[in-house]
Amino acid sequence: MKNNIFLKLIFCFILVFRFSSVAKASPDESVCPSEDSITNSLSLKESAYFNNLLAQGLNAPLESFLHLWSEETIVTNNDDTYFLKCLENDETVFSYEIMIERNCRPDVLYSWGPLAKLQNIQRHLPDGEIWRNNPNPYKTSTGVWATISPVSTFNYGLIPIRFKLKKGTPFTNKDSRWSDSDGIIAYSLPDLMDFIIPSGKYIESWSYGTSELYDEIIKDILQIRSGEKVVTYYHLTQDLVHTTNNIKRVFKSGVPENEKQTETVLKTRLLELIKMILADEGKVYYQNGVCHNRKAHYTEKPTYFNQ
């Protein structure tokens, strides 16, 4: 009899613990509206526009690609952007020994790559689970190499991937005392604007193949092309720094490691993304316990450099 009572008590304790754990993992409904309350469907007008663009393929002029899926008006920024202010006001923000100041930390990073890279990340950052693994373990890879400019590394592969980071994510210099084992995101300066994500620990959500991502890439292209001050993956050469309305600024914003940055390569990448969007192949992945909706993932004003 006593044994039965004892077993029942243990069973009740397990049930309470399980349900309390689940409750803690669920985001607050008051600050996290359900996914059903957010419209993700594409308008017929925009779908028709991009279907037509897809039919034209590489014959379409680049200007036709610089069109948003959303109805937002495109405005290039002629003021110092978020990170430029950080860089200009305090040279120690990205110094050798210290972490990036809290008010200058990015909350969004981008990384282009082949299908194999996407599949690797899908395996190691599955939707709804706790992420602690290296997102892209491959050979001697220390993680995902990313940058803040959505377009600057388009020559690295067909697929752009977007990472939304958790609030308070720490960053430290790769060349100081950084180790990929602690999960802290590293940055590399001054030659390249590299960020290394060694673990899923600080990733809140990630996505690929969406209309919102396409729009962020296009806005970045237009800002870089405009001639306004920007920070890109690779420093613009002196002869391009002050040019206006010059697409060469975009094609010189990265490093030609995999392929040269050309109009044909850029259009090929954008066509692949359009195919994904129209086929509804894109997806947003969320870590366990965070707000599950696109509005939370696609922040109104992400703090990448050129917005």
Radius of gyration: 22 Å
Structural class by helix and strand composition: alpha+beta
Largest sheet: 4 strands, antiparallel
Helical content class: 25-40%
Order of helices and strands: HHHHEHEEEEEEHHHHEH
- Tell me the number of structural domains: 1
Ends distance: 69 Å
How many β-strand stretches?
A: 8
Measured by DSSP, the beta-strand proportion falls in: 5-15%
Rounded mean pLDDT score: 78
Low-confidence blocks of residues = 6-30
What is the overall shape? Answer: globular
Q: How many helical elements?
A: 10
Q: Which strand order spans the largest sheet, edge to edge or round the barrel?
A: 1-3-7-8
In summary, what is this structure?
By secondary structure, the chain is α+β, with helices and mostly antiparallel strands. It is 34% helix and 12% strand.
Can you put this structure into words, describing what you see?
The structure is a single chain. This protein has 307 residues and is α+β, with helices and mostly antiparallel strands. The chain has one domain (37-297). The chain is 34% helix and 12% strand. The protein is built from 10 helices and 8 strands. The chain has helices at residues 2-25, 44-56, 62-65, 82-89, 115-124, 211-226, 238-241, 248-251, 263-278, 294-297; strands at 108-113, 144-146, 159-165, 171-173, 185-188, 194-197, 203-208, 283-286. A 4-stranded antiparallel sheet has the order 1-3-7-8. The protein has a 4-stranded mixed sheet with strand order 2-6-5-4, with no helix packed on it. A hairpin with a 5-residue loop joins strand 5 and strand 6. Helix 2 (44-56) packs across helix 9. The radius of gyration is 22 Å and the shape is globular. The termini are far apart. Mean pLDDT is 78; it is low at 6-30.
